[in-house]
Amino acid sequence: MNIDTTSLIRDMGMNAGLLCFLAALYSIVLSGLRHPDLGIRKARQRWLPWITGLMFGVTGILTMLVPLRMAEGVIVDARLVMAGLAGAYLSPLGAVLCAVVLGAYRLSLGGIGSGPAMVGIVLTTGIGWLWQRHRPYFSPQRFGALYDGVWLIGLGLSLAAGGMLAIQTLPPEIARAVTSRSWMAVVVIYPIGTVLLGFLLDNTQKLNQREETLEQTAETLKSMLAEARQAASVFVNSKDTIAIVQPDGTVLDVNPTYSNVLGYSREELIGKSSAVLRLDEGGEATFLRRVAQAIERDGRWHGELVRRRKNGEAFVSEVTIEGINDPDGVVRKWVSVGKDVTEQRRLEQALQQFGNYDALTGLSSRRLFAKELNATLQKSTGTTGILALCLLDIDQFKDLNEQWGQPLADQYLRVFAQRLRVETGPDNLIGRIGGDEFAVALKDCAHTEAALQRLEGLRQSLARTAVLDNVQLRLTCSAGVTFYPDDLGDADGLLRHADLALYAAKEQGKDRIAVFDVQQGQRLQARRHTAKLVEDALLQGEMELFFQPKVRISDGQVIGAESLIRWHHPERGLLAPGAFMDDIVGTPASGKLDYWVLDAAFKAGHTLVTQGCPLPLSINIAVPTLIDSQFQQEVARLLKRHPSLPQPFLEVELLETETFNDLSAVAYVIQGLDDLGVHCSIDDFGTGYSSLTYLQRLPAQIVKIDQSFVREMLDNERDRALVRGIVSLAHAFNRTVVAEGVETPAHAEALRDLGCDGLQGYGIARPMPLPDLIHWIRAWQPPPEWVGARQPVR
Asked: Potential cystine with 315: which of 342, 369, 597, 736 (Cβ 3.0-4.6 Å)?
């Protein structure tokens, strides 16, 4: 090509000068944002998109006045580079303003190229915006020290491609001619211009950020002295025990609370080893090494210690130890902050004992036995042994109770349980399922015949004569047994099958063993049939949500409603979840139903808003659906789709029948939902599935007390104590407490006295369709005795 080198160099110099001038102006504008007056700074920030947009647009016009003449008929200017860089570096408003300025000027020039020029301006502005959005991807971890250069080159090539695409909007013959003459110049000039101006803009932004950092550092230094004074005040006045120690355990200083709690004076503690204050199983050196490793890895150690007061009394302390960095970055001191949690741990143990163990016999409750059995089944996967699950029922126990009374019957149950322990051995599972029914799980049986022989021997041993209060008692027992893995299923399924076999043994004349007939094909077919019917019901609109209100106990105000599924079965009428949910657990129909409930709850919430009754709603979701990767995204989509809903609107209740095999995954999802403004609750708390571990590890905001405890609390002191303990424990963890199963005003009054926050149950309202809920909300008046009622101090 015949190129006038002198003109080209001149034009390139002028364009480079314009780009440098723009970078200088950009730097001046950014530096003007760092004004000490907040009001002026905000005003300048509001004008920043307009100023920078005009700057980029005017500079683009100037580059159009001094284009680069690459050859005869080949003229390239940098307007599309300016439009693309505006999209890549400015706010959307600034980028649009730049595009408008460039487009207006180009339209004023007229000509056949006006249309393609407008397309190019819009296209390159959008390309720049997309590259701005994805710039975090170009990180030093992926591209090393050249990550900025890679991003700029990619942006420049993309702008060149956008410019070539715009040329194609010319008439075909003209487009081909222009493309053949200019493609090389565009591919070379656009990336060079992009890298040049982008490099200047990047450095301008980095310099501005450094200056801002210096100003912030100065402000930080000013506040450090005030913070130091405040820290000293916190140290002296804190209600937590605080100690400064060396990594070898030597005490350097303690606050007054530390001295008061442990009974030592400050002078007695300073310079002494902290080992005398703890009861360590592994010794001082082991403990200090464990703490040092945790601080080096995570920056802190957190755990519980058994400490010893000066008078020898032991207590449990929850302690956090953090390292204090010296100016050279080396940790030479630790700060230990602790609090006495002895009473809280005692309450937890009592609650755990109530929920997991039978008070009469000391055996595992049905809930705990099922949990332990599930764990055993998981461990036995892949082994060759057989597990025999047996349910035992005392045949003449009802007669014993009626003839000799409950005290003697209770003594016999304790004897029966003790014999079970001795005969079964420590390696197997035993539990009291209820009444006179017990469960035994024999592990690692060689074959079914050997297991049946052991169970028959056990049954005969249990039938030996017992002498209680000079009364000789010999009671036989019936047994129902099923074998795993011949009978595949979880703990609940195996218990149901063993119970069916026990029923068969009773029907056959008692005092014998009956084995469950698996009939796997029939059961699977029945489940498939139910799942198919549920999926068809969703498609045919047979499902409906009913709603049961929840009220705040302090003032009787309606605070939400629980969404409960109902099936309008064409043959069986209105069905509650208990009629079909168990049959679809673990099937695709369960997940489909959960997502239908989620969508229906949002639609109901929208209807409530339009009717002037905005109300938060809760839904029951199975754990497999909760941890599904699409669930959180669907919740976010629905929240965005319904911006008029009250905040917070949605509450997710974790189902009673679910066991959390992966607490980390559940906790992660709950935290993600919390970030979206969605609350979660632990449903049926206290029944065993919702253990104290879940309360500690799951960041759920609400605890719902199981209705079985609430319903009997007025007549059963054990249930009342359990409810009181759950309320206290939940409040200790800053959880809101809602009681289910409130059937009478007496229940409400008792729960109010115990400090419960919310109520739900037939005593408030039965589940009802959405139109009835709207009428109910409008007509609801809290009982007069609730209004102004004094709440217990929390």
From this structure: 342
